[in-house]
Amino acid sequence: LRVNQDEPMEDYPLKVEGGKEDDSSSGTRRFGMGQTTKDQMRTNVINEIISTERDYIKHLKDICEGYIKQCRKRADMFTEEQLKTIFGNIEDIYKCQKKFVKALEKKFNKDHPHLSEVGSCFLEYQTEFQIYSEYCNNHPNACMELSRLTKVNKYVYFFEACRLLQKMIDISLDGFLLTPVQKICKYPLQLAELLKYTNPQHRDFKDVEAALNAMKNLARLINERKRRLENIDKIAQWQSSIEDWEGEDVLVRSSELIYSGELTKISHPQAKSQQRMFFLFDHQL
């Protein structure tokens, strides 16, 4: 992502013989070259966005055709429910990304890549990208199910055979399944880098700025949903650990545990005190 590690040389005044600065030309050259450098950096970021997108599509295709298709042929080893747990909605993500990469390529200006206007593509797909939320929420279950299956040798051999047949790089299946989670987190970084090298006068500036905010919000939304689901899971586990639970389920009214700790309960009229554990939820104590 870091396409510009060093300061461009053009930012420094040109030296002429005798060690004096050449004032007559350095101003215009610096400006002219500076612009060119910024355009070159923008070209680099655009190329990076499009090439990583193409790699990612190949990656998704390999998972769908190399693993899912082969697993479906083996009803003796996998139920449809298991496949749903392991692969989540990755096939939907693949369909969505194929359309997205086509939209990006349409906006790519081959002759002058720095003039490409790609911001609108991200804005157009921001709603569709919400399908990543379901994938990210399911990912821990996928890891658990895979870890359970790979304790059995025949599954280890089967997954390895799938990988070799599809000529995929030497990474285990759980490594491949992590990529969509990483991808949705990478978009804000790529867009921030693109914005940095987009002049405010560029026709793409406003769209890139809006796209960066949209992708940051999407990542935040996914994290928030994931956190809420984890909280709900914790409450359900907590309640099931209590014997002879009475009353309605906590989850009917609450979805988050705010605080828990010991309190002294004092009963009148005898002022009898008892130690009790209290749990404060978002809608009840």
UniProtKB/TrEMBL annotation:
<feature type="region of interest" description="Disordered">
    <location>
        <begin position="1"/>
        <end position="36"/>
    </location>
</feature>
<keyword id="KW-0963">Cytoplasm</keyword>
<dbReference type="InterPro" id="IPR011993">
    <property type="entry name" value="PH-like_dom_sf"/>
</dbReference>
<dbReference type="InterPro" id="IPR035899">
    <property type="entry name" value="DBL_dom_sf"/>
</dbReference>
<feature type="compositionally biased region" description="Basic and acidic residues">
    <location>
        <begin position="12"/>
        <end position="23"/>
    </location>
</feature>
<dbReference type="GO" id="GO:0005085">
    <property type="term" value="F:guanyl-nucleotide exchange factor activity"/>
</dbReference>
<dbReference type="InterPro" id="IPR001331">
    <property type="entry name" value="GDS_CDC24_CS"/>
</dbReference>
<dbReference type="InterPro" id="IPR000219">
    <property type="entry name" value="DH_dom"/>
</dbReference>
<keyword id="KW-0344">Guanine-nucleotide releasing factor</keyword>
<protein>
    <submittedName>
        <fullName>ARHG4 factor</fullName>
    </submittedName>
</protein>
<dbReference type="Pfam" id="PF00621">
    <property type="entry name" value="RhoGEF"/>
</dbReference>
<dbReference type="GO" id="GO:0035556">
    <property type="term" value="P:intracellular signal transduction"/>
</dbReference>
<feature type="domain" description="DH">
    <location>
        <begin position="41"/>
        <end position="225"/>
    </location>
</feature>
<dbReference type="GO" id="GO:0005737">
    <property type="term" value="C:cytoplasm"/>
</dbReference>
